Amino acid sequence: MSIMRIDVYSHNVVISQFTREVRDTIANYMSSYVEYDVSKNHRGDIIRKAVRVYGGATFDRSEYRIHRSALDEFLNHLSNFGYPKTSIDITYHPLPFIEPIEVNLLENVKPRPAQIPLIEHLIKPIPSKLAVLQMGGGKTFSLLYAISVLKQRFVIVLKPMYIDRWVKALTDPKERILDIEKKDILTVQGTKELKRLIDYAKADALSAKIIIISNRTLYGMYEHYERTGDLTFYGIHPNDFYPLLKANRAIDELHQEFHFNFRQDMYTHTGTCIGLSGTMTSDTPFINRMYRYMFPKDAWYEDTNYNRYTNVISLYYNLRNEQDIKYIRRGRASYSHIDFEKSVMKSKTTCKNYIDMMLATIDEYYIREYQEGQRCIVFAGMVDMCQLIVTRLRERYPHLTINKYTSGDPYSNLLTSDISVSTIGSAGTAVDIPDLMLCLSTTAISKSETNLQVMGRLRENKRWPNKHPVFAYFVCEDIPKHVSYHTKKVKLLKPYVLGQKTIFTDIRI
Fold first, then answer.
1. For the residues of 203-241, what is the DSSP string, one character each?
2. Banded model confidence at residue 43, pLDDT cuts 50, 70, 90
3. Is the pLDDT of residue 42 over 70?
4. Cα–Cα distance between 216 and 260 in angstroms, integer?
5. Cα(85)–Cα(79) distance, rounded to whole angstroms?
6. Is the dihedral of CA 169, 170, 172, 173 positive or negative?
7. pLDDT tens figures, 146-193
8. What are the φ and ψ backbone dihedral angles of 131, each rounded to 5 degrees?
9. Residues 6+ apart with CB under 8 A from 395
């Protein structure tokens, strides 16, 4: 008699029908996939809180899901507890059929030499492939080129805010590289549209060659199944989604919402999955381990020939009244830039001085040598702070187009403004701003991947080949975390930039 059933799919392993005696052994293994938030409270006590699980489980814990890459590790775990492989009922499921599609490149479309090895990697017949490429290096181009070679239907999963951008890349005469029509592209956003897609596929009426789906929409299907066990609402088991669509899968900006992107594999059974990202560098060993589960060594392609074209300027300043500026989150000992900005905004004088410092930076590194068509972006932590900055910028530079780009604002604000003001969550990654010459980050951040992404909004500019874009950021000398973040950034950014300069200003806010 077997102690459990294991079903092995392309990207996940389902553990079910296990006996009571082995339940604790399974739970013990699943605990290694729990991510903890470790912090200190105001008394200095270490607080360890479970925040995410990189696996899957039904509400009654009758079924667990782990990554396909972890199968051997899990079997070894069971063996160490006295449960050999011979005591387990294991079924390996064959790969599903993927719909062939007729999709060709437009005439005269050719990859750059640096993109050729990436494209060769993306068409390899392996389950998972990751492309880590410098921001602006052509990840979208390379994926679409690979699709034209593979000639198979693909589902592209991404954040809702990026759907329009991808449709534009597929259809805009200036950007498109594939010889496809709008009718060949299907976008899916919301439960109603997802259920309609499933119905089309069931009726064998699905003709789209590329399907673009909101990640939030897919997450709803997975969450519904785990919470209820119900299969009638969507009409299928989540694991049958890609076999039903007869499609492969690609994920853009994989590093964003990585937990969910990892969890997608828990319900993916398909021919191949492609992940795209500008950076896969985490400060957390646990996350790096999860990266390697999702993309083993043979799946990983990273272009290390970094094109360095950015100059970095760090600007030190001081506080007039240190006791009036609060930046420690209540009940915790960690730095909070949101609390910092709230504190700054409480004083009209401090807030004015703070924004004056931004204006002085923009004057020096953007306005002084401004040429028509060049652009600037300013990052702040709060939407309210963004609006205050926009108001002051419009007063200072009435001849320029200046707009805010945060949740609810049109994407065109980024593309048509001379100066944009945004949050890192809205525009710090996966947006391309043409002719951007200054990126000013007023937000103090520690995460390596976030710092690289924010700096990565800058691109090498062929219109002004003798002028290098500038990434500038503020450092408050009176806030220890600002100084430690700066020290870390200097080391982090060094391999990717032309030069770094630290300026100690005489500014006090």
1. TT----SEEEEEHHHHHHHHHHHHHH---TTTSS-GGGH
2. low
3. no
4. 9
5. 7
6. positive
7. 999 999 999 999 999 889 889 989 999 988 999 999 999 999 999 999
8. -115, 110
9. none
The answer to whether residues 388 and 350 touch, using CB atoms and an 8 Å cutoff, is: no
Percent helix, strand, coil in the chain (nearest 5)? 40, 25, 35
| Helix axis angle, 71-80 to 20-30, nearest 10° | 130
Residues 459 and 432: beta-carbon distance below 8 Å: yes
Query: What mean pLDDT do residues 104-112 have?
Result: 93
Contacts of 480 (CB under 8 A, 6+ apart): none
**Residue positions counted in the chain:** 509
Q: Tell me the two tokens of residue 485.
A: 């973040």
Cα separation, 154 vs 273, in Å, equals: 9
Q: What is the 3-state secondary structure (H, E, C) of 325-386?
A: CCCECCCCCCECHHHHHHHHHCCHHHHHHHHHHHHHHHHHHHHCCCCCCCEEEEEECCHHHH
Question: Residue 345 forms beta bridges with which residues?
Answer: none
Whole-model pTM: value is 0.83
Instruction: For residue range 394-404, list pLDDT tens digits in order.
Output: 999 999 999 99
